[in-house]
Amino acid sequence: MSEPGAGKPAKARANGGRRLNIGAVRSSFAPWNDPSAVPLVRFEGVGKRFGDQVAVEDLSLEIYPGEFFALLGPSGCGKTTLMRMLAGFETPDTGRITLAGEDLAGVPPHRRPVNMMFQSYALFPHLSVEQNIAFGLKQEGLPKAEIAARVVEMLDLVKMAPFARRRPDQLSGGQKQRVALARAVARKPKMLLLDEPLGALDKKLREETQFELMDLQVELGVTFLIVTHDQEEAMVMADRIAVMREGRIAQIGRPEEVYETPANRYVAEFLGDVNLFDARVSQIDHPMARLEAAESLEGFFVLDDDCPAAGSAVSLAVRPEKMRISLEAPPQGTHNVLAGEIWDIGYTGDWTNYIVELPGERLIRVARANASRFVERPIGWDDKVYVTFDPDAGVVLG
Amino acid sequence: MKRGASVFNLVSLTAGFAFLYLPILLLVIWSFNASRLVTVWGGFSTRWYGSLFHNEQLMGAAWVTLRVGLVSATLATVLGTLAAVALTRHGRFLGRTLFSGMSYAPLVMPEVIMGLSLLLLFVALKVDRGLLTVTLAHTTLTMAYVTVVVQSRLATFDRSLEEAAQDLGCTPARAFWSVTLPNILPAVLAGWMLAFTLSLDDLVVASFTSGPGATTLPMRIYSQVRLGVSPEINAVCTLLIGAVAVGVICWSLASKWRTAAGRQPPA
């Protein structure tokens, strides 16, 4: 491997103060689109069952060097099993897993060049912070001086030097998380596996730690595989996300891809909120398509990309924040207008979520960013409202 | 809220302590009796302690008991801990239920039956009864207790600690030795103590399995008491009580000191 983090531009402040947005930074790092790139990890048709419970089924996946990869899904979707198979704690029933070209079958956990950060952190309670970090280095049989130097380096890396002699039970949750991280990266693994790394932290700390983990990953140049059920965590940190469902991958892609162009209803509903309309393609007139749906007399007008042939039954997925809500009727000729009544309002400070009842007791959700502090006339309960969305706001799902 | 000592509390406390410790206290007092007669107080004396050390039968029996206790408790701890690991860590292996039932059998089996069956075994195998057979019998008797104590600790022990050790380069055996064992050590030591004390005061199994030259202290005391309580017996019992008390006090001081050390950040 070349210089740590090579091929993956560092974040904005390391870049001569020039501001880059996150999307732009990420889009230049895309080894999965490069046919000559060699994956670090390859799952090939991997399956695993526990009794008659299928945990992972015929799953294939490639993870590239330097990637920050997230396995995202609800509990029981097989994401943890997948990670544990890579670490060597579970054996696949079918298929094979290779790491840097080497078949991992039969290689016990202690000989795999990966390290794992456990959900419970799994710090050794009988050892101090520095002894915990030194533990893996001692197993390698490194000289004492080298171990000591590496421990100091790791303590500095996670800013835990003042706590070197504490025991794990004298640390806060965030500190434990740092020690667990330092311990896992001390052996300079080819790949770091993180099992719900931020699950035990409170919201503020979780946000901070997300960015720290990203910085750390760039600094170390290690490939990260993270397992999480928290979509925000995956969206913020990962280069690519695999959304999992019942042991299979429902969709794999960059965060903005899986969110903005979900491949199916499951992904659309799992990531964020979505309004789904059952519809039928009635007419395709490039670049637009018209969908018939019970909610709209006029029909919905959407872009025709990925739209199946006329007559097919589809779902139209529209995210709440991509809908507009207003008390006044939109001008004549506006497409995709839904008239309804406010059913419920959820004010969260930065956003307000409106639940709107359409005729036929159909509820949809509209979100509005509270960009200004005052409005002339706030929208209230039982108000008659108009909801509109642009033709490019919706995704047609087959 | 202040929790003062009410009359009821004081009375129940006194009654409880009296019930538990009065017999022992009486025994200790009588061991300092100058008179040979057990029921007549003839003034304070330590003569029975002196003569005790010249009573070779009693001293020999004490030595036997100590050796049997140390060896059998250690063997039982090793075997019992391994059994506990097998039961908690190896999932569902063939014969697990049978193994589990068998390792707990000594807990519920009447000691007489156990002693008798061991005797039959030793006779069938033509093993001469003596120190070895008592030690083996006590190992069998006490192993189950160690298994119970260690197993309950292992059940609550975070398994991911072992996995973390393996992940960091330990073989499973090494992970057990350097991570699991240090953390379950209090339970293992408690199991050892339990096994040791059980072996110390066992009369029934020892009576069946011991032979000439391997008379344990409880056997000796029992046979002497049948001929009348001698003040020497009181003295030896007082010494035993003293030894156990010192052990228990050391144990609790050590654990207190350990928790205190754990709580304070080291300088």
Query: Which range does the strand content of chain A fall in?
Result: 25-35%
| N- and C-termini, Cα separation of chain B | 36 Å
Question: How many strands, which pairing sense, and closed or not: the largest β-sheet of chain A?
Answer: 6 strands, mixed
Second-tier CATH architecture of one domain in chain B: Orthogonal Bundle
Using only C-alpha atoms, the radius of gyration of chain A works out to 25 Å
| Relative strand content of chain B | under 5%
Can you write the helix and strand succession of chain A as a string? HEEEHEEEHHHEHEHEEHHEEEEEEEEEE
Within the CATH hierarchy, at the fold level, what is the topology of one domain in chain B? Answer: MetI-like fold
State the domain count of chain A: 2
Oligomer state equals heterodimer
End-to-end Cα distance of chain A: 42 Å
User: Could you estimate the helical fraction of the residues of chain B in percent?
Assistant: over 70%
Low-confidence stretches of chain B: 263-267
Number of strands of chain A: 20
Structural class of chain A: alpha+beta
Bulk shape of chain B: globular
What is the name of the CATH superfamily of the largest domain in chain A? P-loop containing nucleotide triphosphate hydrolases
Major sheet of chain B, described briefly?
none
Task: Explain this structure.
The complex is a heterodimer of chains A (398) and B (267). Chain A has 398 residues and is an alpha+beta fold. Chain A has two domains: 12-113 and 189-265, 3-Layer(aba) Sandwich (Rossmann fold); 273-397, OB fold (Dihydrolipoamide Acetyltransferase, E2P) (Beta Barrel). In chain A, 23% of the residues lie in helices and 33% in strands. Chain A is built from nine helices and 20 strands. In chain A, a hairpin with a 3-residue loop joins strand 16 and strand 17 (351-358). The longest helix of chain A is centred in the middle third of the chain and has 18 residues, at 203-220. Chain B is mainly alpha-helical. Chain B has a domain at 61-229: MetI-like (MetI-like fold, Orthogonal Bundle). Helix content of chain B is 76%, strand content 0%. Chain B contains eleven helices and no strands. Chain B has helices spanning 7-31, 47-52, 56-89, 96-108, 111-124, 131-155, 159-167, 172-201, 204-209, 217-225, 231-263. Chain B is globular. The two termini of chain B are 36 Å apart. Chains A and B meet through strand 6 and helix 3 of A and helix 7 and helix 8 of B.
